[in-house]
Amino acid sequence: MRILHICRNLAGSTVFPELFEALHAAGTDQMVFVPEVTEKNRGRNVPPNVPTHYAVTLRNTDTVFFSRKAARTVPYMESQMDLSNVDLIHAHTLFTDGSIALSLFKRHQLPYVVTLRYSDVAVIWKYEWHLRPLARQILREAAAVVCLSPVVREQVLHFLPAAQQPQLAAKCTVIPNGLDPEWLTGAAPKQQPAWPVRVGFAGNLNNRKRPLDVLKAVHLADGGRGRFVFVGCGSGPLEAQVRTALNSSDRLLGRISGRQAMCDFYRDCDVLLVPSSAETFGMVYLEAMSRGVPVLYTRGQGFDGQFPEGEVGFSVPCGQPAAQAERLEAVLEGYEARSARCIERAAEYVWPVTVSKWLTLYRNALE
Question: pTM to 2 decimals?
């Protein structure tokens, strides 16, 4: 079984090379094609053990003339790559990668599976109405459709008319992102925190991640009593506003990167609160859990539904800092047991476990 990955977003994500390397470790024969807009991304995040082909076949104007993406990319792939031994295509986004996979399916009868991500569900589908017929065709022709969470799966089912939803439901499954097992190295449950409770935020300081709401929630829960403090990392357009809103005991560390640096950050947190307005999964929650940190995640978004309410934390309504403040109090009840459950459940998401799900899906798609 040889898999051809089409992965437009390889340069900007560490999740994809980790997946490809984990598949390689499981003995999967694969290659990666990366359609790009700019030459400067060539070679970024290339998985060491998987053949990867970058090609500048996209243009910024393709957002308007979308069909040109596949029209330009597919002939390039046919002339520069050997497609004769490909058994299955994995398109890692619905629109860009999926449109290329659909075209290859029509021209070469190569079956494909497609994964839906944040931009597919929360941006392109929502705002680019003229592309919805293309999305529906990609979903109908796919051998399998993958969402990162149960919440997103329910949203995607409604992309098709009611009469076609049962057919989509039968081939639409949930496979979350995986976690590098190294995140769990040396992890131990946390003890009941002493005052002040350190409320962590990790992510871009932008409107989608809602860092200002986190600050409001922390300050509401604290009420000037020294019970809660904000500890954040990240940078972005709201950084000046966030720094202005900090209390004297709050801390904003700026942007940090690397697993060890993030492990150190989570060690300095008692709870993680990231109330994003839109999220197809949210790796930050899983990373925090792996270090024993209970999480508060957005209700109705990607991470919601991964675990029973209260098991590793709680869902919170986006845009409601007062309600989030209440959950900061609730998450402290039974804290030590919840911290232990966070580590136990995070272990179920390590890449070897996730890869076994992908291999089963690939085999079923080919059958």
Answer: 0.93
